[in-house]
């Protein structure tokens, strides 16, 4: 009723009850609106049922979106999905992490992993010039999970870059690394200089660094800059 000009509504799918009700109600108001369900890749029971044209049970449901980790779509919801839902999109756990970060950083909202399926699906929606509604449903997430999701989301979006490299065990090496990172505009978060790590080569030490970056292109640029300066770095994430 508030958005009569909506063209598409993206809805998380677990057992299928939520999308069944939304699809019925929305299409009573606007029959042309598209209803698209979104499931985690590791628990796509609705998509499996549509492909088989019958309710099927998955062997497992493995996803960080535990609220929608459903092996078997509900029998009654499946009938409504066949009748009123226009398609199903699946998203990976990595895409969920990135979507969680967007929601927190840009919109200052916190939702559980299952609740942000619809937001993660936006990049997979092959539509142009349409008004799309992403339904955010569910806020049952603890503080430790929020911290973990933010960190993983930063890594997934290339905002955090961790690497290791072998350095000659001689004075001035750390300064060289710091100079290269400064040249690349990468802000160091942590650095671990371990003289006792590399037992294979007594003349070398291991350095592990985590830094803030601006995306994948920035990370590639850092790796190339280290190469130009004679350092081979090993990406950790």
Search tags:
237 residues, alpha/beta, Rossmann fold, Alpha-Beta Plaits, 2 domains, four-stranded parallel beta sheet, elongated
> How would you characterize the largest beta sheet?
4 strands, parallel
Kindly report the CATH topology of the largest domain.
Rossmann fold
DSSP summary: helix tally: 8
Shape: elongated
H/E series, N to C? EHEHHEHHEHEHEEHE
Percent in helix: 25-40%
| CATH arch. level architecture of the largest domain | 3-Layer(aba) Sandwich
Mean pLDDT over all positions: 91
Unreliably modeled segments = none
Total discrete domains: 2
Q: How would you portray this structure in words?
A:
The chain contains 8 helices and 8 strands, in the order E-H-E-H-H-E-H-H-E-H-E-H-E-E-H-E. The chain has 237 residues and is α/β, with parallel strands linked by helices. It has 2 domains: 148 residues, Rossmann fold; 78 residues, Alpha-Beta Plaits, CATH 3.30.70. The strands form 2 sheets. A 4-stranded parallel β-sheet has the order 3-2-1-4. Helix 1 packs parallel to helix 3 and helix 4 crosses helix 6. The longest helix has 15 residues.
Element layout with pairings:
Blueprint: E1 8-12, H1 17-29, E2 34-40, H2 45-52, H3 75-84, E3 87-91, H4 93-107, H5 117-120, E4 132-134, H6 143-156, E5 160-168, H7 173-183, E6 187-194, E7 204-212, H8 216-228, E8 234-235
Parallel strand pairs: 1-2, 1-4, 2-3
Antiparallel strand pairs: 5-7, 5-8, 6-7
Helix pairs in contact: 1-3, 4-6
């Amino acid at each position: 009723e508030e958005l009569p000009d909506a063209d598409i509504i993206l809805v998380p799918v677990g057992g299928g009850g939520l999308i069944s009700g939304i699809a019925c109600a929305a299409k009573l108001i606007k029959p042309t609106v598209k209803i698209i369900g979104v499931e985690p890749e590791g628990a796509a029971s609705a998509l499996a049922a549509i492909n088989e044209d019958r309710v099927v049970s998955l062997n497992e449901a493995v996803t960080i979106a535990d609220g929608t980790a459903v092996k078997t779509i509900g029998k009654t919801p499946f009938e409504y999905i066949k009748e009123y839902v226009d398609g199903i999109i699946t998203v990976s756990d990595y895409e969920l992490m990135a979507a969680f970060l967007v929601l927190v950083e840009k919109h200052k909202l916190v939702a559980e992993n299952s609740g942000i399926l619809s937001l993660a699906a936006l990049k997979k929606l092959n539509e142009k010039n349409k008004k799309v509604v992403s339904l955010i449903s569910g806020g049952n997430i603890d503080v430790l999970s929020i911290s973990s999701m933010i960190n993983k989301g930063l890594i997934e979006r290339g905002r955090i870059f961790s690497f290791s490299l072998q350095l000659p065990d001689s004075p001035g090496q750390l300064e060289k690394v710091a100079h290269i990172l400064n040249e690349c505009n990468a802000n160091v978060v942590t650095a671990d200089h371990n003289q006792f790590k590399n037992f294979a080569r007594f003349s070398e030490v291991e350095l592990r660094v985590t830094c803030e970056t601006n995306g994948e292109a920035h990370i590639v640029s850092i790796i190339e800059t280290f190469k130009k300066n004679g350092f081979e770095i090993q990406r950790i994430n």
